TrEMBL record:
<dbReference type="Pfam" id="PF00211">
    <property type="entry name" value="Guanylate_cyc"/>
</dbReference>
<dbReference type="GO" id="GO:0000166">
    <property type="term" value="F:nucleotide binding"/>
</dbReference>
<keyword id="KW-0812">Transmembrane</keyword>
<keyword id="KW-0456">Lyase</keyword>
<dbReference type="GO" id="GO:0004016">
    <property type="term" value="F:adenylate cyclase activity"/>
</dbReference>
<keyword id="KW-0472">Membrane</keyword>
<keyword id="KW-1133">Transmembrane helix</keyword>
<keyword id="KW-0547">Nucleotide-binding</keyword>
<keyword id="KW-0175">Coiled coil</keyword>
<dbReference type="InterPro" id="IPR001054">
    <property type="entry name" value="A/G_cyclase"/>
</dbReference>
<feature type="coiled-coil region">
    <location>
        <begin position="117"/>
        <end position="144"/>
    </location>
</feature>
<dbReference type="GO" id="GO:0035556">
    <property type="term" value="P:intracellular signal transduction"/>
</dbReference>
<dbReference type="GO" id="GO:0009190">
    <property type="term" value="P:cyclic nucleotide biosynthetic process"/>
</dbReference>
<protein>
    <submittedName>
        <fullName>Adenylate/guanylate cyclase domain-containing protein</fullName>
    </submittedName>
</protein>
<feature type="domain" description="Guanylate cyclase">
    <location>
        <begin position="169"/>
        <end position="296"/>
    </location>
</feature>
<dbReference type="InterPro" id="IPR050401">
    <property type="entry name" value="Cyclic_nucleotide_synthase"/>
</dbReference>
<dbReference type="GO" id="GO:0016020">
    <property type="term" value="C:membrane"/>
</dbReference>
C-alpha cells in the first residue's frame, strides 16, 4: 500500500482514531487528532506498547498474521468519563516496511445504549413476571367466587350467560344461636371460628363433587349438578350434609364453643349466573335453593331435613326417618324426612 493510498484512507477515516506503527520496533510514525484526544500525544520515540499498555501485542500479531486483522475493545479514562474504544488492527507494507494500521472508534454510546436496552429488557421481564403473578392471583380470587367452567366463559367472553339447570340438589346450613354468639364474642374470634369451619366444609364439598356457592354470615350454601351435570347430585349433597354434622360433632369435643347446625336439602331446578358488573358474584336462584332454605327451618339442631322426593336417590345409602307432611311457606304441603348416616357411611365418617 502506498503513502498516497494510506493518506486517502486516513481522509476517509474522519471521526475515527488512526495510528501507524512499525511492526519491527512498534514505534509510532503517525496518529491523527482523534487518536491523540483518546490516548494522548505520542512523541517521536513513543511505541505502540506505551500508548496501549493493556494491548496484548503477541495476540495482535498472531491474529493479523492468521486472519489479516485483529479486533477487540479497551476501556480508557482520558478525563472523568470511561470510554469504550473498539480497536481494529491490520497490516500493510510500504516500501518494504511492514506496518500496523490501528483504527479506533469510540463505541461508548453504543455500549451505554446496549446497557440501557438490557436494563429495559430486564425491567420488562420483571414487570411481565409481576403481571403474570397478579393474573394468577386474580384467577385464584375469581375461582373462589365462581366455578371454573363459569370462570372460563367469563374470561373468554367477558360475560356469563344465565343458565337454567333443571336437575340439581342444594345443601343449606346455618348455625343455632349464631347471632347471640357473635354479639357476645370478639369479632376476631367469631371470624376465626367461621373461617376454620367453612374451610373444612369446603374440603368436604370438594371431596363429594359439590360446589360451594357462597357464605352469608353463618349460612353456607353448596350445590351439586351444576355447572357440571351429575346424575348422583342428591347423594352428593346428602353426603356433604352428614359429613358437616360429623365434623362439628368431633370439633365440639375439643373446642370451648359448641357449634350446632341445622341443614336443609333441596332438589329441582336452579339458575346460575354472575351477578354484578364491578363486584362479581356467582349466585344461584330457583326452586331447589328456596326448598333447601325453607326445609332448614324444620331441622332440629345437628340434623338434616330433605324432601321426600329425594328418598329414592338416598334410601340405599342413608338412614331416613319420615317426618310426615308439612306446609312449606312459598312451596305448599310436602312430605319431609330426616337424613342420617347409614351404617357404612357412619363407619367411614368415624375415619374423617
Amino acid at each position: 500500500m502506498s503513502i498516497a493510498a494510506i493518506n486517502e484512507q486516513l481522509l476517509r477515516s474522519i471521526g475515527v482514531g488512526v495510528a501507524i506503527a512499525r511492526r519491527s520496533d512498534l514505534r509510532m510514525i503517525f496518529h491523527n487528532q482523534a487518536f491523540s484526544e483518546w490516548f494522548g500525544e505520542a512523541g517521536g520515540e513513543a511505541a505502540l506498547s506505551d500508548v496501549l499498555p493493556d494491548l496484548d501485542l503477541a495476540a495482535v500479531s498472531q491474529a493479523v498474521d492468521e486472519a489479516g486483522r485483529y479486533t477487540g475493545e479497551i476501556s480508557i479514562k482520558p478525563k472523568r468519563r470511561i470510554l469504550v474504544i473498539a480497536l481494529s488492527i491490520s497490516s500493510a507494507t510500504v516500501e518494504d516496511e511492514r506496518l500496523f494500521i490501528v483504527e479506533c472508534q469510540n463505541i461508548t454510546r453504543i455500549r451505554e445504549l446496549e446497557s440501557m436496552i438490557d436494563s429495559y429488557s430486564t425491567m420488562v421481564e420483571r414487570n411481565t413476571r409481576e403481571l403474570e403473578r397478579e393474573k394468577e392471583r386474580v384467577e385464584r380470587l375469581l375461582l373462589n367466587l365462581m366455578p371454573r367452567s363459569v370462570y372460563e366463559e367469563f374470561k373468554t367472553f367477558g360475560v356469563v350467560t344465565p343458565q337454567l339447570y333443571k336437575d340439581v340438589s342444594v345443601v343449606m346450613l346455618d348455625f343455632v344461636d349464631f347471632t347471640k354468639f357473635a354479639a357476645e364474642s370478639d369479632p376476631t374470634i367469631t371470624l376465626g371460628e367461621l373461617n376454620d369451619i367453612f374451610t373444612a366444609f369446603d374440603r368436604i364439598s370438594e371431596q363429594y363433587g359439590c360446589e360451594r356457592i357462597k357464605t352469608i354470615g353463618d349460612a353456607y350454601l353448596a350445590v351439586a349438578g351444576m355447572p357440571e351435570p351429575s346424575h348422583d347430585h342428591a347423594r352428593a349433597v346428602a353426603n356433604c350434609a352428614v359429613r358437616f354434622i360429623r365434623y362439628l360433632e368431633r370439633r365440639n369435643q375439643s373446642h370451648p364453643h359448641k357449634w350446632l347446625a341445622r341443614i336443609g336439602l333441596g332438589t329441582g331446578a336452579a339458575v346460575g349466573s354472575v351477578v354484578g358488573i364491578q363486584k362479581y358474584v356467582y349466585d344461584v336462584f330457583g326452586p331447589a335453593v328456596n326448598m333447601a332454605a325453607r326445609l332448614q327451618v324444620f331441622a332440629e339442631p345437628m340434623t338434616v331435613v330433605a324432601p321426600d322426593d329425594m328418598k329414592e336417590a338416598l334410601v340405599e345409602e342413608f338412614h331416613l326417618d319420615d317426618l310426615g307432611r308439612h306446609d312449606i311457606r312459598g312451596i305448599g304441603e310436602m312430605r319431609l324426612m330426616r337424613v342420617g348416616a347409614g351404617i357404612e357411611l357412619a363407619r367411614k365418617s368415624r375415619q374423617f
